[in-house]
Amino acid sequence: MIQASICTIGDEILIGQVTDTNSAFISKSLNAIGIKTTRMLSIGDNRDEIITCLDNELKKNDIVIVTGGLGPTKDDITKPALATLSGSAGYKESKEQVEIIGRLLKDRGLDMLDINRQQAMVPEKCDVIPNMLGTAPVMAFRFGPERYGHQCMLYSLPGVPFEVSGAMPDVLSDIRMHFRTDDIYHKTVMTYGIAESALAAKIEGWENALPPEIHLAYLPDPLTGVRLRLSIYGGTAKDDAATIETHLAGLRKILGDAIYSEQDDTLQNTVRRLLKQAGKTLSAAESCTGGMISALITSVPGSSEYYLGSVTSYAVSVKENVLGVPADIIGKYGVVSSECAASMAEAARRITGSDYSVATTGIAGPGGGTQTDPVGTVWIAVSSPERTLTEKKIFKNDRTRNIERFSASALDFLRRLIQSEINN
User: Fold this and answer.
1) Half-sphere exposure of 374 (CA within 13 A, CB side)
2) How do the residues of the chain divide into helix, strand and coil, expressed in percent and rounded to 5?
3) Does 212 sit behind a cis peptide bond, omega within 30 degrees of 0 on the bond before it?
4) Measured distance CA(330)–CA(333) in Å, rounded
5) pLDDT per position as a tens digit, 147-196
6) Rounded Cα–Cα distance for residues 388 and 376 (Å)
7) CB 346 within 8 A of CB 336
8) d(Cα 47, Cα 85) in Å, to the nearest integer?
9) Which residues pair with 290 in a beta bridge?
10) What distance in Å separates the CA atoms of residue 79 and residue 123, rounded to the nearest whole number?
11) Rounded distance, CA 152 to CA 146, Å?
C-alpha cells in the first residue's frame, strides 16, 4: 500500500498561533484515492531541521506532502531547504506562475514587485504544478530508487488552507500518474448515549470476533457521540463492503437505537432526515444551552423547511412571561426540574405551532450547583402532540463541554422520540 507523510512547516504552528487544518484535509484527500497517511509532523523554521526531517520521511514513505514556508519574506525558508534536499544547483522561473501572479495582483489593483516575481522562482530539480489561487506554485520533487531505495515524491504546497484545497486535485492527479494505488474502504457507524469505555465493553465479544483484516477505531466527540470506523486496507471496495456488512448485523442487534446513522453524520442532520421523512416541524425552548441547540439545528442547510424557531428563556421571568411556565411549577419543583422542562417544551410547540419541540433547563457551571442538582445537571424534555417525555442527565465537565453535552443529548432524545413515532 502506498504510504504518505504530511509535514507542516512554521514556528507559528508549533507555538499555537496558527491551527493546522491542512493536515487533516490532505490526509482525507489521500485516503480517498487509497493512500495511507502514516505520520503528521510539524517542523519549525529551521533550515537544517527541515532538511533532516524531510529526508527521514522520504526514507520511510512513498509520498511526502509539505505545507507552509513559501511566502515572499526572508523568514520563509522552505524553498532553499528543498533546493538543498533535491540537489538543485540553481533556480528556474515558472512562466505560468508569473502570469498567475500578475493576474492576481492586477485583480487586487496592485503592481508586480520583484518580491512577488521571486515566488515564481523554484529549484531547478522540481516540476511545477501551477497554483491558480495564490502566488507560490506547488513544487513536485521526484526521487528514484538510487536515492532512497524506492521511488518517492515530495510535494511542497503553500500553507494557506484555501490554496491547499484548490491545489490538491492537481496533486492527486499527479500522484495517480506515478503510482498504482490500492483501495481503502471505511464504514462509519455513529452512536450516541453510550460512553466510549462502556461501548467498548458492550461490544467486546463482537469486536474480538472480527476477522483480522477489519480494523476498528473508536472516535469520541461530545457533539456527535462515539464514531465507530471499520476499515479494510488493500482490498477492493466492493468486496470490502460485503465483508463488513456481514458483521454489521451483529452490531446493530447489540446497540439497537444507540446507532443513529451508518455514515459519517451528526445528530442534527439525522433529526433533519427524520423530520423531512415525516413531514413534521420543530421548535425549541432553551435555558442552560443558551441557543446552542438552535445553532446546531440551523447549521444544516435547508433547516428553514422544518425548523420554526426557539425561545432562549434564560431568566425565570422569560420562562414565566414568554413561555408561560406556571409560577407554581417553578415555586414547587424549581427551575431545574422535569416539570419545568416539560412545560417549556409544550409551550414552544404551542407558541410556534410545531409538531415537535425540545427544551433544556439545567446548571452548566461553574457555579450554581446544589447537593441535589450539582453542576452539570440538565433536564431535557421532548414533546409531540401525543406525549411529552423528560430525562435527567448529569455531566461532570467544564461549562463549555457541559453545554455541548446538554445540547447533543437533547438532540439525541429528540431523535429517539421522532424515530419511535415514525416507526409506529
Assistant:
1) 7
2) 45, 25, 30
3) no
4) 5
5) 999 999 999 999 999 999 999 999 999 999 999 887 889 999 999 999 99
6) 23
7) no
8) 10
9) none
10) 7
11) 11
